[in-house]
Design a protein that fits this description.
Blueprint: H1 3-8, H2 11-21, H3 26-32, H4 36-52, H5 69-81, H6 86-105, H7 111-118, H8 136-147, H9 152-167, H10 171-175, E1 182-183, E2 188-191, E3 200-203, H11 206-219, H12 243-256, H13 264-277, H14 282-289, H15 294-298, H16 303-315
Antiparallel strand pairs: 1-2, 2-3
Helix pairs in contact: 3-6, 4-6, 5-6, 6-7, 8-9, 9-11, 9-13, 13-14
């Protein structure tokens, strides 16, 4: 390519060639740094944000090196005018800052540009906690409903839900557990696929350990993933459950148990809330939940909601 042709190229063309030469892209770099469960929401947020700037192409072809302070400020303002929730706006800003940090690390923008972008402040405000924590009655009702299903799928689901209630595992962590990760005698579970690549140890209670033994006996002790799909004929398939399958299992089992809507992450919220209700300190709870920031653990604390409900109920007595 001659110099005259290079001079005629737009900034977008220069950006695209640069990323092609490096065989990487700031969006890909950023998304790959996230836990699998967070990539979809962040990618969706990025798509919505770039559309507000008038760009409707693939994220990978967005000229990210041309993003400046006024663009992030515009997105922040527009989302606010649209009445978007505080969390939605801050999620969008967080995703955009993440991509721009990747741009800086890849040498696509300079430090002063990144510094100006980081000066776009998050929106202040308090939002209600998402999801819910199951009551002790609901949790037992859910487990009893699973126990009534004596099929191999029922036994698997019973063990899976009991494990999630007992350990607070994320969906992505559950589907990644291998047979060798669980020590049946001690009840120790090694988690290698924690958020951000962090590893930790979980401890099973007596009930969940017993259910896991029953499931392993049905599954067979051959190496592989702990939880597997079940064929229509009742055979255990030699592959891991999909994350979406865990979501479907929890939703369907809650519906059969005739309790209010339950999502997999609600089991995690229940785990944290029950620990705190039992007097476990917040930092220990943070470690057991695999949170890096104690403020994240605090958002899973639904004790205040339960206390408020009890107080209102007392008024009618």
């Amino acid at each position: 390519m001659t110099l005259s042709k290079q001079q005629l190229q737009s900034k977008f063309d220069q950006y695209y060639i640069h990323t092609q030469q490096h065989q990487t892209n700031p969006v890909s770099v950023y998304l790959e740094s996230l836990a699998p469960t967070g990539r979809r929401s962040m990618k969706s947020s990025l798509l919505s944000s770039t559309m507000l700037l008038g760009f409707d192409g693939p994220l990978e072809t967005m000229p990210w090196n041309m993003i400046e302070y006024q663009h992030l400020a515009q997105i922040r303002s527009t989302l606010g005018q649209q009445g978007k929730a505080v969390n939605t706006i801050n999620l969008a800003l967080s995703a955009l800052r993440g991509v721009m940090r990747s741009c800086f690390n890849l040498g696509l923008i300079k430090a002063d540009q990144l510094m100006l972008l980081n000066n776009v402040k998050s929106v202040r405000g308090q939002r209600l906690p998402s999801g819910r924590s199951l009551t002790a009655h609901e949790a037992q009702k859910l487990l009893r409903s699973c126990a009534k299903d004596l099929s191999i799928a029922g036994r698997r689901d019973h063990a899976l839900i009991a494990l999630m209630l007992a350990t607070g595992l994320r969906r992505s962590e559950v589907v990644a557990i291998s047979m060798s990760d669980l020590k049946s005698k001690t009840g120790l579970l090694n988690i290698h696929s924690g958020k951000g690549g962090k590893q930790r140890i979980a401890y099973l209670n007596t009930e969940s350990r017993l259910l896991m033994r029953h499931w392993r006996k049905l599954r067979g002790e051959q190496a592989g993933y702990l939880f597997n799909p079940i064929s229509k004929s009742g055979s255990v398939l030699d592959r891991p459950l999909a994350s979406q399958s865990v979501y479907d299992i929890v939703c369907q089992r809650a519906e059969r148990a005739k309790i209010d809507t339950v999502r997999p992450h609600d089991l995690r919220r229940t785990f944290v809330t029950q620990l705190l209700e039992s007097g476990v300190d917040l930092n220990t709870t943070r470690q057991l939940a695999g949170h890096q920031d104690i403020q994240t653990t605090a958002r899973y604390d639904f004790r205040s909601s339960k206390t408020q409900q009890k107080a209102v109920q007392q008024l009618s007595k």
